[in-house]
Input
Amino acid sequence: MSDLPRTPSFDVSGKRALVTGASSGIGLGCAVALAEAGAHVVCAARRAEVLQEAVDAMAGQGWSVDAMPLDQSDVTALAGAFDAPFDIVVNSAGLARHCPATETTPEDYDAVMGLNLRGAYFLSAQAAKALITEGKPGSIIHISSQMGHVGGVDRAVYCASKHGLEGMVKAMAIEWGKAGIRINTICPTFIRTPLSQVTFDNPERLAWIMEKIKLPRVGEVEDIMGAVLFLASDASAMVTGTSMLIDGGWTAG
Output
């Protein structure tokens, strides 16, 4: 046969990508995945010194990368980040302040919602606005959570922010689809990072996690990297308004 289908490309060479929360953990993994696949990656985060160390390490691999110190909860600063459109935007900035719902303070509530939902909303809006102005398609990817689909112990505010994010993405996908702008979420389970290590060090929490995850291990940053490349590339050209659960089967049971 001469008309066999061809696998769409995962290559993102020549694309401009913005990755927020890129100084460590999942965000750094996303930045590396895109840079390895050929994109020019602008890495954004609040911690300027840590961010620069990560960018220098990536540049040492021969990848095309820049640093952009950015507080994603600052809507004015977000607007300034999009003086030119990005073909790919990955939002990995997030905040968790876990405690019983009866002990949540207004300050903690506002901080989590301000970054996880408000910051994500206006990042998406600015990214789409810049693409629409130039008449370009693009892919916007949010690192959400399995907690955007279920509930969790001491996680009422965090779950609220992620459930809200999932609904926001569906609405934006409907609004921007005709412009060729896709928007999706990646929903990880507990991923081993420096920030999550305190949870893994708690025997009671670890036992809860391992009971819920159906596979025999917790998640690693590398488990997210293929997913972000898929959603950023032409391999996912028909995917928008949905979530990719990388949860080891947590939400299946």
